[in-house]
Amino acid sequence: VQLVESGGGLVQTGGSLRLSCTASGFTLDEYFVGWIRMVPGKEREEVSCITESGRKTYYVDSAKGRFTISKDNAKNTVYLQMTNLRPEDTGVYYCAAVIHDIDGCVARWFDYWGQGTQVTVSS
Q1: pLDDT (tens digit, 0 to 9) for every residue of the chain, 123 residues total?
Q2: How far apart are CA 120 and CA 98, in angstroms?
Q3: Residue 73, SS3?
C-alpha cells in the first residue's frame, strides 16, 4: 500500500502547480483522500479533502477559490490544482487516505500517508 506524490516545485507568487497523488496496492474510489500541508514550527493544516465518490470536497478557507481537488479513479490518482499561489502556501504537501468517508477533513484520521512533495512560492 503506497501513496506517491509529485508535482511540487518552486514558483513565483501568482503561479500555479498541480500536485498528483497516485495510489498503489489499493483503489482510491474506496478512500477518502486529503492533502495536508506541513511547515516547520507550525501545526499541520488540512488544505483539502475529497470523498470516495469525488462528489464532495473540503477546502481550508485560505484555499477556497484558488485550489481545486479532484479524483481520477481510472488513473487511481487524486490531484490538487493550485492557482494564484502565495508565499504562505509554501510547505511540504502530503497526500493521505483513509478507507471510506469520514466526517470532515481531519488529518488524525488518515491511515496512509505519502512521502510529501515540497511546494515553495517565492515573493
Answers
A1: 899 999 999 999 999 999 999 999 999 999 999 999 999 999 999 999 999 999 999 999 999 999 999 999 999 999 999 999 999 999 999 999 999 988 899 999 999 999 999 999 999
A2: 27
A3: coil
| Distance set, CA 62 to CA 43, 67, 83, 88 (Å) | 15, 9, 12, 9
Do 103 and 34 form a contact (C-beta atoms < 8 A)? no
In terms of C-beta density within 10 A (0-12 exposed, 13-18 middle, 19 or more buried), how is residue 80 classed?
A: buried
Contacts with 64 (C-beta within 8 Å, 6 or more apart), sequence order = none
Give the Cβ contact number of residue 68 at 10 Å: 16
Tell which residue, 57, 31, 33, 59, has the closest CA to residue 45.
59
Give me 1's grid cell: 500500500
Q: How many CA atoms lie within 13 A of 56 on its CB side?
A: 10
Residue 13 is given by DSSP the state T
